[in-house]
Amino acid sequence: MEATEHPVRQLRVVVEAEDHDTAVHFFRDVLGMPELAAFAEGGDDRVAILDAGRATLELASPAHKRAIDAVEADGAVSPHIRLAFEVDDSAAATDRLEAAGAHVVARPVMTPWRSLNARLDAPAGLQITLFQETETAEERTARLGFGTDAGRDRPTGG
User: Quick one: DSSP state of residue 110?
Assistant: First the structure.
């Protein structure tokens, strides 16, 4: 496979929301994720697919997860899976989501990786991070300790 090929076309995170209407309102109308599609089979059988822009999968070691929790939420332990949304203004987005019923775990803080991150408990039992980038990926990866795994020694499977 060539390096430019991507066999995965989309990352879709599926969340069961007991209060579907509240969750849709929060993420679609307040956070601002446009609805791409919605389907209903009748009764309570409903789904809304919201556009989150570009999706990435962040795989963190337990040590890095603890480091993120220490920086981003003053050590408050995050769940095994947490959603992170890039926003233009993390402080304004935090205030907007709090007004819509989210519980603020931690207000925006400047991280060592130069983003302003806030942590909130959101509808559907999700903990989320709002992050605002303050430098480009090129600027970040040029700094000591922020490169890619390509040049690092790492264990092999087997």
Answer: E
